[in-house]
Every structure is written in structure tokens, then in C-alpha cells.
Specification:
The protein is of the alpha+beta class. The protein contains ten helices and 26 strands. The protein is 15% helix and 34% strand.
């Protein structure tokens, strides 16, 4: 149904109708004071937010039985398709008009063959993917276009709960939709949405299609990139999440330079400070920080003098509230960068300096461990994985499509936590557990779920 516009004209004493400008909504009150409006700010901001359409192909997972010619012939089952086409819609934000750089979410462009950007003025451009980081759900794309509008950055560290914000995007494909609200909470983590979480929570309406769009303050400055909602129905219920722009800037800089985020290695594991630990360490109630539980020998943390039991309260003068904060801070540091750690040890504050090193990846082929694992590349959980320090096991780094490991159900990023009912913490323990046995029972951690796989 098309909208109907009603124009009201007022006639006085038989005179002609007033001009339309006089019949419009007032811009000033009876005292001549301008009425508040977001329109002037949005006129400058909306051109910097784009609509993104993607299409591509994805592999169809199916039972290994469908790969068996005898099974298909016996049950008269035709050859099943291996892949299917998909399309999706999302949003993006222009961050560099001269270079045509646009930020969006990783999940918006994931597995896409073609990425099409539509500007506010109706122009369409094919975009090139420069890099993507699934752990923070940030992607950087590029278009060749003139007369672009880039949004200025704010300092998201200065956001406060209660600040007014505006979300701009294309929910359900409705281009350039604007909603407003406030910052409901800061530093949201532990949601299981991404590997590195430090979300801005807002009640500004965010719906499917808003992903990758802008969250701006009342000055029109970019404070976050809209990425997810909390909903049981799939629609907005007033709980939306955005990635802080300070985190996006660090990630996008590495994506532009390297095409990926090259996360460094500190070599320490940590956990949150519970009330019991605060009491045990003789700290004051309300103390923030993360307590170090393990330091890897000969790691940057070890060389800096960090010890188990130390409580990290600041990194580069930025307060650390919990283990998630510590992990996020380290995850954004570049290889070779020096970092100052402020710790509490035996009740006294102390500063340590460490230099971030490149992660050490230990890996092997599945075939070298057991024939049933042929086609898989296995390695220990590295510090740049969201599972690091959370669970112990061996990670599946890659799986060749159609290989024995693939047909058995193994997938990339699975973590093997036990084999043949024996807990495994590293490659050597997995090697001992699988040996040359004719069958394997693997306990797998996949995302937030767990399952058993039986290979024979």
C-alpha cells in the first residue's frame, strides 16, 4: 500500500489558502525557540551509510552414506547436490571517502562471491573484500567511486550509559532507516556471539539487515558498528549490540595492511576475580582485574616477570575489569608491540613491560595420527582462538572436503577434547590415544555445543 499524503489548507474570511510552507509542522515554538530535531545531523550522516547485497555458494552438509555408491544404488537415491546458492542483505559504513573503504560485519559478507554496494544516492558498485576477521565480526571492503561521504570517528571509550545514540541501516531491506535510543550498557561480553566481545548495548531498534550499519552519537560521530540483537522472535525487543568503534579501528587498520588480524602472543592465562578470590588475595571489595592462572615458559609474559597469582589491573594505562577485558586488550595488540602491564602482587602495584610475539602454531596432519583422520590438519589451540584458556584439547585447523575426516563429520574449528574415552590436552596425548586403533570415538566441542563422533 502506498502512503497517502494529506495537505491541510486554512482559509480565513474567504481568502486563498496559506502557502504550504506555513502549513508545515512548526520548527520553532511560540517563543521563537527552535524545536529539537535530529534531521540536520542526519542529513550529513546518512550518505555515509550504505546498503550491501551479497550472493555466493555454500557447501551442503549431508550424511557420509550419500557418498557411498552402493548405498545410493541400493536405495535408488539420486546424486545429491553438493552446494546451494545464497543471498543476503546488510549495511556498511564509509570510513575513508578518498580510498572508498567501507566497514561492515564479517557475517554479512561471509562466503560471498559477489558484494554489491548501493549508496544513498542510488549508485551501485561492485566491492572488493580487503580482509575479514570472524573473531570480532569485522570486515573491510573497497569500492571505486567519487563523491563519497565518510563518517568521523568518536572515542567509544568515552561513551557513558545514558548517552543518546542513533542507529542507521537497512533493516529487512528497508534502506536508510533511522532509529534512536540510548546506550543501555557498556562492555557486554560472554554472549557467545563473537570470539572477542566488548559490546555497546543499546535500545535503539536494530533488526535483521542492520548488521554492519552505523551507531552514531548526536554529533553524527561513529561510536559503533551494529552487529547483533538479543531476541527470541528474530525481531527487535530493545536489546541490540554494537562493536565499539575503537575496536573496529584497530581491526580495520590490520585488515587494510595485512588482509587479516595478526594477533600476538603474551603467553598467560587468566580468570575473573570472584568474591572468594578477592578475599583470598586480601583485596578490597569491588577490585577489578584478572588473576593470572598460568604463564607459559619462555613466553613474553614469562620474560616480563609475570607470575601465577598476579592480578592484572591495567594494560597500557587502560583499566582491566575481568579476564575478558584482558583477552580483548591482548587480542588487539600487534606483533612486536610493547605493552605495559600494571599488576598487583602481594598487595602492591607494580609495572611490567612485555613485547608481544608471534603465536607459535604446532600442527600435524591427521593421516600421521590415524587413517580415519586423513584429510584433517590438527593443531594445539593457539592464543588467537576464542577457546584458548577456556577448554583444553586439539583444534581442527582445516578439513579437506570429501576426505575420510570430512565424511566422518569433522569440521574446521572443532576441538577434540577426548579420544577413545581419554582426555586429550595436546597433540602428543591425542597421538597416544588414537594410536593405530581400527575405530575412534571422539568427543568434539563445536561452538557452544558438544557431540560425539564415531569413526570406523
Amino acid at each position: 500500500m502506498k502512503p497517502v499524503l494529506l495537505v491541510l489548507a486554512i482559509c480565513l474570511g474567504g481568502s486563498a489558502a496559506l502557502p504550504l510552507a506555513q502549513a508545515a509542522l512548526p520548527t520553532h515554538d511560540s517563543q521563537g525557540t527552535a524545536l529539537p530535531s535530529l534531521a540536520p545531523m542526519l542529513e550529513n550522516v546518512v550518505p555515509g551509510v550504505v546498503n550491501i547485497a551479497t550472493s555466493g555458494r555454500v557447501q551442503i552438509e549431508q550424511s557420509p552414506l550419500f557418498d557411498d555408491p552402493f548405498f545410493r544404488r541400493f536405495f535408488d537415491i539420486p546424486q545429491q547436490p553438493r552446494e546451494k546458492r545464497f543471498s543476503s542483505l546488510g549495511s556498511g559504513v564509509i570510513i575513508d571517502a578518498a580510498k572508498g573503504l567501507i566497514i561492515t560485519n564479517h557475517h554479512v559478507i561471509d562466503k560471498a562471491d559477489t558484494i554489491t554496494v548501493m549508496l544513498n544516492d542510488g549508485r551501485h558498485f561492485k566491492a572488493k573484500l580487503l580482509g575479514s576477521d570472524p573473531e570480532t565480526d569485522v570486515a573491510l571492503i573497497k569500492i571505486h567511486a567519487e563523491k563519497l561521504t565518510a563518517l568521523p570517528f568518536a572515542d567509544s571509550d568515552k561513551l557513558r550509559v545514558g548517552d543518546f545514540v542513533v542507529a542507521i541501516g537497512s533493516p529487512f531491506g528497508l534502506r536508510q532507516t533511522v532509529t534512536s535510543g540510548i546506550v543501555s550498557a557498556l562492555g557486554r561480553s560472554g554472549l557467545g556471539i563473537e570470539g572477542y566481545e566488548n559490546f555497546i548495548q543499546t535500545d535503539a531498534s536494530i533488526n535483521p539487515g542492520n548488521s554492519g550499519g552505523a551507531l552514531v552519537n548526536l554529533r553524527g560521530e561513529l561510536v559503533g558498528i551494529n552487529t547483533a540483537i538479543y531476541s527470541q522472535s528474530g525481531g527487535n525487543i530493545g536489546i541490540g549490540f554494537a562493536i565499539p568503534i575503537n575496536m573496529v579501528r584497530e581491526v580495520s587498520a590490520q585488515l587494510s595492511e595485512h588482509g587479516q588480524v595478526r594477533r600476538g602472543r603474551l603467553g598467560a592465562e587468566a580468570q575473573d576475580l570472584t568474591p572468594e578470590l578477592i578475599q583470598a588475595f586480601g583485596l578490597q571489595n569491588g577490585t577489578g582485574g584478572a588473576v593470572i592462572t598460568q604463564v607459559t615458559p619462555d613466553s613474553p609474559a614469562d620474560k616480563a616477570g609475570l607470575k601465577s597469582g598476579d592480578i592484572v589491573v591495567e594494560i597500557n594505562a587502560k583499566p582491566i575489569r575481568d579476564a575478558g577485558d584482558l583477552r580483548n586488550a591482548v587480542g588487539l595488540l600487534r606483533i612486536g608491540q610493547k605493552v605495559e602491564l600494571t599488576i598487583v602482587r602481594d598487595g602492591k602495584r607494580k609495572n611490567l613491560e612485555a613485547q608481544i610475539e608471534e603465536p607459535k602454531h604446532v600442527k600435524t596432519t591427521g593421516k600421521a595420527l590415524n587413517p580415519h583422520l586423513q584429510g584433517a590438519t590438527l593443531g594445539e589451540i593457539s592464543e588467537d582462538s576464542p577457546f584458548y584458556g577456556q577448554i583444553e584439547g586439539v583444534m581442527v585447523l582445516a578439513v579437506e572436503h570429501g576426505s575420510p575426516a570430512w565424511r566422518a563429520g569433522l569440521r574446521k574449528n572443532d576441538v577434540i577434547t577426548s579420544a577413545n574415552r581419554k582426555n586429550v590436552h595436546n597433540l602428543e596425548e591425542l597421538r597416544d590415544a588414537v594410536g593405530k586403533t581400527s575405530s575412534l570415538l571422539l568427543n568434539i566441542r563445536r561452538g557452544d555445543s558438544a557431540l560425539f563422533l564415531y569413526l570406523q
